[in-house]
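Pipeline run #58 for the internal structure catalog. This entry was flagged by the ingest filter as a single-chain record with no existing model, so it goes straight to prediction. Upstream metadata was stripped on purpose; only the residue string is passed forward. Reviewer on rotation: M.T. Logging verbosity set to normal.
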Amino acid sequence: MTDLSTLDVTMPVGVFRALVTAATVDMKTGLLTCHAWHARAAALLSVTERPIALYVLDVDRFGEVNKAIGHVDADAALARAAHALRRAMGADAVVGRFGGDEFVAITPVDGAEAARRAGQDACDRVAEPVPGRPPAPAGLTVTASIGGVVTRSSTPDLTALLWAADAALYSAKRAGGNTVRIVEAELARDTELEPTERGSSGDQIA
C-alpha cells in the first residue's frame, strides 16, 4: 500500500498561476468570472466611502447578431463590448462577465450624474459597426442596454444593488435597447429599495 505522506504533491508555479487565472478570468473577454467578480465587488463595498454605482450591461438581440455573423465574429463582438465597458468604467471599477452576453461592473462614483455619464459612454462605445462576413445585413451594429443603480449608503447590500440594476436594465430593454437607465436608491443592508428612475438623459421617467 502506498504511503501518501511520501508523495510529492507540489505544483509548478506556472501551472498554479494558470489554474488561478482560469478560475478568475473569463477566457473570451478577459473580464472577471462571475464568482471572482462577486468576491472583488464585495471587497470593494467593504472599503469604499464614496457613492457606489453598479451596472448591468446586456448586448441587444445578440441571438440575431450571432446568426448573422457566425460564432467567431459574435465572440469577437462580445469581447469588444467587454472592452468598451471596462474602458468606460475606469481604473477603479470591478468588471466581470455574468455569462452569455451579460456583463456587470461596480465602481465608486462622484454621484448620479457621473454614473449616468459613464453608463452612456459604455453604451456609445458598444454601438459600432460589426465587421461581419456575408450574409450579414448591411449596417448591422452591436448595441447594448445598460441598467445601473447609484447608492450613497455606507453599508450597501450587493444583492440589492444587483436587483435594482437588473430592474433598470429591463426598463432599458423595454425602451427599445441601446439605452441607459440609472436609478438612485438607498440600499443599506436590511432596508427596502426606494429607487428614483432616470433615463439616459437624466430626466425622471414617469
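catalog note: The radius of gyration is 20 Å.
catalog note: The CA atoms of residues 75 and 107 lie 26 Å apart.
status: ready for reviewer M.T.
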